[in-house]
Amino acid sequence: MRTLIKSGTVVTATDQYKGDVLVEDERVAVIGTSLDIVADRVIDATAKYVLPGGIDVHTHLDMPFGGTTSADDFESGTRAAAFGGTTSVVDFAIQYRGQTLHHAWETWMKKAEGKAVVDYGFHMIMTDLNDRTEGEMDALVRQGVTSFKLFMAYPGVFMLDDASIFKALLRTAKNGGTICMHAENGGVIDVLVQRALAEGKTAPRYHALTRPARAEAEATHRAIALAEIAGVPIYIVHLSAAEALEMVAEARDRGLPAFAETCPQYLFLSYDNYEEPDFGGAKYVMSPPLREQAAQDRLWRGLAFDDLQAISTDHCPFCMKEQKELGRSDFSKIPNGAPGIETRMSLVYDGGVRAGRISLNRFVELTSTSPARIFGLFPRKGTIAPGSDADIVVFDPNRTITLSASTLHMNVDYNPYEGRQVTGATDTVLSRGRLVIDGGKFVGRPGSGSFLKRASRS
Ligand code: URP
Ligand code: ZN
Ligand code: ZN
Predict the structure, then answer these.
(1) Pocket mutation for ligand 1, best pick of 65, 286, 291, 332 (most atoms within 8 Å of C-beta)
(2) N or C: which end of the chain has fewer CB within 10 A?
């Protein structure tokens, strides 16, 4: 099967040129100008960008959390991802206390099998570290689950103590895995939450007011310090606060391998959203919380100057009806998380590239190439080059869309950006050479996505 993508502007993290791309079966075969090759399918990309498929390394599909389950499963979630120009996701399997890592991995593989429409990998959330599970970490790394998420927050649910975190870091120094850290001081936050509730402060905004930026900065600093002592890289997930970014920047200035991602919600939304009336603030209850608007500029600068290396979504959707509503009279019972898997590329293109905050190459780097490198997918994914997987997005930089729950494809009854207009939209998507989105229409097949066996750090 040959697909010829003609007359587009090919953009990678380093290049931008007019060209044609020939895809043969699952891979990119030839890149050139005016390719005169017979193909089974020709896609006209005139006036469009031809981008490596987006890679979202932080999603929570079909995840039990906060007494309910995230609203997108692997079918609806990866379908929405494809609509938005994302062709690989790395989701999180969860090891609950007393369970093996292998059991968790098998459970999440079953959730994805027969459903995913684009390729998927897994990080492993570890909640129970002991001699046996430490040994299992090595096996998982060999099997392509090469990263582990640990929590410094959510005491009694996910949180690990510093000794366990340190042991896990030491283990990855040997086995080539990577620790991803949810960096918020869970103990401090818990005290603030209990105090707020005792004072009758139950509205959604208290979710943010009980999770101060300094609690994120402290944990970020501690996580980096523990990794420094262990002599391993560390990756901070969903960084939201300027104060936390200072910790990453300081570490990187000292030459430490500290990496971090932020998410569109922290670039485009702010604490003010929690003040929306009628329990509207619940839409934005996520951890870490949205910050003051001033943090946005600092995050954009971090993205431009490489103190932040990736933009993921932390897609973890819960409907307002029956899910967010669980916390109507107690903000601490609102399931944490928000939808974003479909809107990332357009939001970042519009607010980043068009607004002059990051270059077009940096946009590709942050949404695809750099996450591929950090998480062992490059050069199979994250670029357009002969031999790489034909995960390709034909992106129209001039098409304006209005973001709305009524037209987007995520399985959730609201959108945090409802009514926002963005310019820059996904037209056509190939996933390993298969057409998944054709001129804005879904033509993919559930189950055609494959498990991504990722490489470890060498
Ligand atoms: O609020 C969030 N972020 N929900 C998803 C779980 C997590 O901590 O990433
Ligand atoms: Zn987290
Ligand atoms: Zn998350």
Answers:
(1) 286
(2) C
C-alpha to C-alpha distance for 3 and 394, rounded to whole angstroms: 13
Helical spans, DSSP H, in 113-253: 131-142, 162-175, 186-198, 205-209, 213-230, 242-253
Strand partners, 3: 23, 41
Secondary structure of residue 7 in the 3-state scheme = strand
Residue 429: phi and psi, rounded to 5, are -135, 130
Q: By alpha-carbon position, which residue is closest to atom 9 of ligand 1? A: 314
Residue 60 Cα to ligand 3 midpoint, Å, equals 6
Reading the block at residue 264, the tokens are 């569109």
Q: What is the DSSP string of 39-92?
A: -SEEEE-TTSEEEEPEEEEEE-SS-EETTEE-S--HHHHHHHHHHTTEEEEEEE
3-state secondary structure of 426: strand
Q: How far apart are CA 280 and CA 320, in angstroms?
A: 9
* Residue 314 Cβ contacting ligand 1 at under 6 Å: yes
> 428 C-alpha to center of ligand 1: Å?
30
* Residues 417, 79: Cα–Cα separation, whole Å: 19
**pTM for this prediction:** 0.98
Instruction: Give me the numbers of helices (H) and strands (E) for the chain, helices first please.
Output: 13, 19
Contact 393, 52 (CB under 8 A): yes
Measured by CA distance, the residue closest to atom 7 of ligand 1 is 287
Per-residue pLDDT of the chain (458 residues; tens, 9 = 90+): 999 999 999 999 999 999 999 999 999 999 999 999 999 999 999 999 999 999 999 999 999 999 999 999 999 999 999 999 999 999 999 999 999 999 999 999 999 999 999 999 999 999 999 999 999 999 999 999 999 999 999 999 999 999 999 999 999 999 999 999 999 999 999 999 999 999 999 999 999 999 999 999 999 999 999 999 999 999 999 999 999 999 999 999 999 999 999 999 999 999 999 999 999 999 999 999 999 999 999 999 999 999 999 999 999 999 999 999 999 999 999 999 999 999 999 999 999 999 999 999 999 999 999 999 999 999 999 999 999 999 999 999 999 999 999 999 999 999 999 999 999 999 999 999 999 999 999 999 999 999 999 999 97
